[in-house]
Each structure stands twice: as C-alpha cells, then as structure tokens.
Amino acid sequence: MYDLVIRNGRTIRGERLEIAVTDGKISEVAAVVSGRGQKELTLAPGELLSAGWIDDHVHCFEEMDLYYDYPDAIGVEKGVTTVIDAGTTGAENVGRFYQLAKAAKTNVYALVNISKYGIVEQDELADLTKVQSQLVAEALKQYPDFIVGIKARMSRTVIGDNGIKPLLMAKEIQAANEKLPLMVHIGSNPPELADILAVMEKKDVLTHCFNGKPNGILDQQTDCIKDFAKDAYERGVIFDIGHGTDSFNFHVAEKALAAGIKCHSISTDIYIRNRQNGPVYDMATTLEKLHLVGYSWEEIINKITLAPAENFNLAKKGRLQPGMDADFTIFTIADGQKQLIDSNGNVRTTAEVIQPVKTIIGGRIYDNQL
Ligand SMILES: [Zn+2]
Predict the structure, then answer these.
(1) Ligand 1 centre distance from Cα of residue 248 (Å)
(2) What mean pLDDT do residues 206-225 have?
(3) Cβ(119)–Cβ(151) under 8 Å?
(4) pLDDT recorded at residue 180
(5) From ligand 1's centre to the CA of 152, what distance in Å?
(6) The dihedral sign for the CA sequence 53, 55, 60, 61
(7) Distance, CA of 134 to CA of 185 (rounded, Å)
(8) Angle at which helices 133-142 and 165-176 cross, to 10°
(9) Measured in angstroms, how far is the CA atom of residue 51 from the centroid of ligand 1?
(10) Which residues on adjacent β-strands are paired with residue 18?
(11) Are 190 and 199 a contacting pair, CB within 8 Å?
C-alpha cells in the first residue's frame, strides 16, 4: 500500500500519468499504477501534472526591509514547490534565514550573497571589505543542504566604484568551493555587460537576461542582439529570466528568440511589492508571458523543473522518476483573455492562461483554488 496515489494525470504532452508516493518520495510512475494508496487523488479531466515548479530567483527572507517576502506566499500558494532565494542574505545572516525558512511548507534554498550581510542596503558591493571568501566557506560548511550557490549583483547602484572587481572576487570564491553555481545579476552600467560576460563561464547563471535596459543583450540602436551576448550563450552561459520589477521586456525576449537565444530557466525575482502590485504577481503570470513570446508550454515547464534542478544541483528534484522527492504541481491551461504587462509597461494580451490547482510537496497536498 502506497501513502498516496495520484490518478488520472496527464503530462503537458498529453500522456497518461499516475504516480505513487511513499515516505515523501516517488515510488512508481506509470500510465496506470496498479497498487492502491492510503490516500488517492483523482485529477479532473483537463488537469495536468508536472514535477513541482522551481523558482530559482526569489527574495523571501522576511526580516529584510528592502526585498523580502514569505516563502509560502510565493511558493506553495502559487503552485511553486521549491524556491531559491537569490542572495538576499550573506554569510552573516543566512543562518537566521535558514531558521525561518525551515518552518515553511515550501522547499527553500539560498544563494548566499558574496557580500556578508546580503541586500541590507542597495549597494552591498560598494565596500569590498564585506566580501570575504573565508566567511562564505564557513557558511557553506554550516548549511550545506541549504546554500546551493553564490550570488553577485553587478549593476550600477550595487557596486559603487568597483567596476568588474566584485565579479572577479565571486569567481575566486566559486573556484575555492568546488565550482559552486554562481548567479550574476545584470542591470544598468557600469559595469559594462560585455565585461561581465567576458568573465562568465559555461554553467554560470546570468539573471535578468531579457531586461530592457541599454546595458542589456539588445543593442537599442540597431535592434539586434549584441554579438558578445550571442557568444556567451553559445559558450554555455545560462540565461535566466529573473523577471522582477525592472528586468523583463517582451521585445528583448522576442528579438532573442528570433536570434536563436532562448532562456534556459524561468524565474520571477518576486518579492512582496512586485507580487502585490505587479508586474510579476506570480510564476504562472511569468509563464504566460514566455508563452506569448513564443515558447511552447512543454519547454516552459521544462524551464521551471528540470533546468533549474540541474543548474543548482538539486539532485532529487525536477524529474518524475522513482526516488525523486514527491513534489508536484497540478495545473490547467485554458483559453482566456488576460492582459500581461512587462517591466517597461508594455501591455500584451494572452489568449491562454495557466493556473495551478494543487501543489504537492513531499507527498502533502495543498489546494490552490480560492
Ligand atoms: Zn533579485
């Protein structure tokens, strides 16, 4: 007898799918599971099932003033089973974040900011005495299952007069710690995007990849994707959405797609203000925007399950296979008119909406319908 059997599921490709769960792990995946479950959940016609959605760029340490939210408000309540907080905290306060995060229903991980107090203030990399490799190494040792990488924010308001130097320090910290995943935020210059990308290597994650700023990947004079951005993409730098208040532009995403550049992972950069007031609102709304740009639903789901799990070494997540954590998102895709707004105020109308119905985390079922 299994703990839970999910019946009558369909994948995004329309294939029949049933899943059995024991002790919070997937024990069987089949078109039809023959054994019974202590609990059985039968999906309604039209309900789709995927591995649990992963949002790899959020801000959910509630004790911060600048960028904060509550893990469950952006996670389980929005169909997202796992969130990765992208550098809200540094080595000095990641422990406090861990204490709070472990009480959440949502799975929470952290990228530790290379600056030791994280984003307490907007310019956390203006004073480089706050970047200490030793402190990051100690935090990693103390929270090995919580910290999944490091974060460096490389834009004008953050770095003071330090140019590219904080990124070079991040690369040194990365090299000293078993090639930890590194996420780099981009925005207004300085530093120049060309200089940032010149330092980034295969598998490093570039977040805010489709921002609409002059220092983004699109040359605003020629309306073409910059050559050095194409080069970085071809070298294997990972392009991550990181929508946020200021960092997703429909036109840039469309021009990139036309140039053969698709983002690898889709994330929201959500926190309380852009959740409540937009333009982010939630993961589903972000997915609708990428669909409108021209991504198929199948690839969209891949970019919030398998892709982020691989990028951040979440070995038990992102796949529907025996032995994986029993994290699932049940959702519908239906016809419906909805206005979508990007970070620059451009409005488009989608004819298809995606809606999480239930979120299952470690085999526990949470209802998303109001
Ligand atoms: Zn962010």
Answers:
(1) 12
(2) 98
(3) no
(4) 95
(5) 10
(6) positive
(7) 22
(8) 40
(9) 24
(10) 30
(11) no
Tokens 């009558």 sit on residue? 8
pLDDT bucket at 335, cuts 50 / 70 / 90: very high
- pTM across the whole model: 0.98
Q: Ligand 1 centre from 300 Cα, in Å?
A: 20
Tell me which amino acid residue 95 is.
G
Q: Coil, strand or helix: which one is 137?
A: helix
Structure confidence at residue 93 as a pLDDT band (50, 70, 90): very high
The rounded Å distance from CA 243 to ligand 1 centre is: 9
Token pair 């605003």 in the structure block, residue: 220
Omega within 30 of 0 (cis) for the link into 71: no
Q: Is the dihedral of CA 199, 204, 210, 213 positive or negative?
A: negative
Question: Ligand 1 centre and the CA of 244: distance in Å?
Answer: 7
Of the given ranges (99-113, 273-287, 356-370), which has the lowest mean pLDDT?
356-370
Distance 137 CA to ligand 1 centre (A): 22
Name, in order, each residue with C-beta under 8 angstroms of 260's C-beta and a sequence gap of 6 or more. Answer: none
Task: Give counts: helices (H), strands (E), the chain.
Answer: 12, 17
Residue corresponding to tokens 């959440």: 104
Q: How close is the Cα of 57 to the center of ligand 1, in Å?
A: 6
The pLDDT of residue 179? 85
pLDDT tens, residue by residue, 132-161 = 999 999 999 999 999 999 999 999 999 999
Cβ atoms of 86 and 58 closer than 8 Å: yes
Ligand 1 centroid to Cα of residue 36, in Å, is 43
Q: Give the span between the Cα atoms of 195 and 153, in whole angstroms.
A: 14
Q: Do 73 and 106 meet the contact criterion of CB atoms below 8 Å apart?
A: no
Q: How far is the CA of 306 from the centre of ligand 1 (A)?
A: 21
Measured between alpha carbons, how far is 314 from 193 in angstroms, rounded to an integer? Answer: 29
| List of E strands, the chain | 2-10, 16-22, 25-30, 37-42, 48-51, 53-58, 80-90, 107-113, 147-154, 182-186, 205-207, 218-219, 224-225, 238-240, 328-341, 347-361, 364-367
Single-letter residue type at 43:
L
Which one-letter DSSP state was computed for residue 14? S
Cα(first)–Cα(last) distance of the chain, in Å?
32
Position 76 pLDDT exceeds 80: yes
Place of tokens 């690369």: 171
